[in-house]
Structures are given as structure tokens and as C-alpha cells.
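Protein modeling request. Please complete all fields; requests missing the sequence field cannot be processed.
Requester role: graduate student
Desired output: 3D structure, C-alpha cell encoding
Chains: 1
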Amino acid sequence: MVPLLFAHHRFAIVAPAALHWPAKNALLVADLHLEKASFYARQGQMLPPYDSQATLQELADLVSDTGATTVFCLGDNYHDGGGEARLEPVAAKQLTAMTADLDWVWITGNHDRDVAGLWGGSVVDEWTGEGLALRHEATADSRLPEISGHYHPKIRIAVRGRHVSRRCFVRGQHHLILPAFGSLTGGMAAQDPVIEACVGGPAEAIIGLKDKPVRFPLPFAYRTIEKIDDPQLALPLVTSAQ
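Delivered output (242 residues):
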């Protein structure tokens, strides 16, 4: 686990795109985009139909590893409004078992405004507590420090001559944006002006390694990063042209 402080709360990065909140014994994830493959299949673009199973299995493994008793899903839980009802049987069975064992909170997103908790869990537009707001999309004028998703932040760097892209967290004084958790999700550059406008003020992109964070001040000038001599960072990264 990689410690991460935000708004006087202690969290831990426990996967490339998940947070553990020890005070609530909760996992926080965003943008599962379940049933994305089946959505594209209906448009004639065939993708392997296992994205929902893969995403939920990774989440189940994190629940087991951390012992979490609560899961907060921060919006765009399904890729489209029909994804919840379309959830394929193996994934639906897996999800039903998880929501029965855990305090599971679905926060609605722009892709799934009508999510109903068909496979268990409670549904809210946003969650507030412990002096924090959990919602799908960051709001520049939030009265509470907020944790959100929506933008799928990534950062692109050069490591030992390779151009690589990695999911990252974006942290400002009052905003913490989670990367997308779903197995088929893309990303937006962490230094994109849209993200900058939401976070405001000084901010940083954070990648969690096995035992420490790597931070990049934002706005991030890609051309100034020629290499990072850290073997931990080099090994798990995925080459990307994005």
C-alpha cells in the first residue's frame, strides 16, 4: 500500500486505480464502465466480452487483500444506461455476491444516471461524510474537499527511451481525481486544461508504486522528462501512443 494524504485524511493507493480508506475500511474506485464491450458490439465493433468479469474480479481481489467492508463506486459504473440490465450472467452473479457481503454504494455518473442497484447496493447522486464529498465529476466550487472520477487521468512519460502511459491520481488542495478502474477504459492527459480548470491552483499527478508514490507537478511539461531511473516504475508500465 502506498500512503496518500488528502484533506487531512489518510488513504492508501492499493492498485493503479483504487484507494483504500482505512478510517472507513472502504475501497474507492471510479469509472468501472461495465459492459463497455457489449455496448460496442451492438454498434458493430466486436471486442472480447470479458471486460465486466475482469473488472469485477480485480475489485474482488482488492476487497480480499484489504479486508474492506465498504465499496464506493464513483460513477460511470456502467458504460451506458442499458448496461446494468445487460450485465452478462457470470458477472451479474459475481456482483450480486459482492454487494450482499459488503456495504456497496453506487454513485451515479453521466453514463449511468439511471443506475438502480439491480444487482444490489444502494444508489446515491453523491455521498458526503467525514468532511468529504464523493461524487462522479469534480466541481470547481465544491464547499467540501471532494474525491471524484470522470476524467480518467493518465500521464505520459519517457522511461529509459520508451514512451509510456500510466494511470494516475490528480491531487489538488480540495480535489482528488481517481483514474478509471475499468478494464477497457481510456484516459485523458492529467495536464489537460479541463482537469486543470476543475482542480485549480497547485496540483500534482501521482502514480503509486509498490511502496512509494511518484509525483509530477502539474501542469506537466512532457518534454522536460527525459527518463526516470527507477526500476519499479519501468517494469509495470504499458507502452502507449496516447
